[in-house]
């Protein structure tokens, strides 16, 4: 839902449909695109971490472990992500 969730909670915006395979747990009353008659429309946003080509594996693995532990992927929803009503999933779970 991103930053629009704040406006939706304040009643300034109304969710008509969500472009995900299933309803969002944070706004369960908003139907999916499939449910409103637009089948197959799925949109997702992803973020990535990058490293320069010759970065040794150890720092990358150490960073990945830190992120996994701190974020609790896939179950946790913390801090800013939670305030934006983000749903966290690992790899192709969404």
Features:
94 residues, single chain, elongated, mainly alpha, 3 helices
What can you tell me about this protein's structure?
The protein contains three helices and no strands. The mean pLDDT is 75. It starts with a helix and ends in an 11-residue tail after the last helix. 28% of the residues lie in helices and 0% in strands.
Task: Describe the secondary structure blueprint for this structure.
Blueprint: H1 4-9, H2 57-71, H3 79-83
Helix content: 25-40%
Distinct helical segment count: 3
- Which descriptor suits the 3D outline? elongated
Order of helices and strands: HHH
Mean pLDDT across the residues is 75
The span between the termini is 14 Å
Task: Tell me the strand percentage band.
Answer: under 5%
Low-pLDDT windows of residues: none
Radius of gyration: 17 Å
The helix-and-strand class reads mainly alpha
Biggest sheet descriptor: none
- Secondary structure tally: strands: 0
Can you describe this structure in just a few lines?
The protein is an all-alpha fold. It has three helices and no strands.
């Amino acid at each position: 839902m991103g930053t629009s969730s704040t406006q939706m909670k304040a009643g300034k915006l109304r969710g008509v449909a969500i472009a995900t395979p299933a309803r969002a747990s944070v706004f369960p009353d908003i139907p999916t695109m499939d449910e409103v008659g637009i089948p197959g429309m799925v949109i997702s946003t992803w973020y990535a971490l990058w490293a320069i080509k010759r970065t040794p594996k150890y720092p990358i693995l150490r960073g990945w472990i830190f992120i996994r532990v701190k974020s609790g992927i896939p179950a946790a929803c913390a801090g800013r992500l939670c305030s934006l009503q983000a749903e966290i999933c690992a790899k192709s779970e969404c």
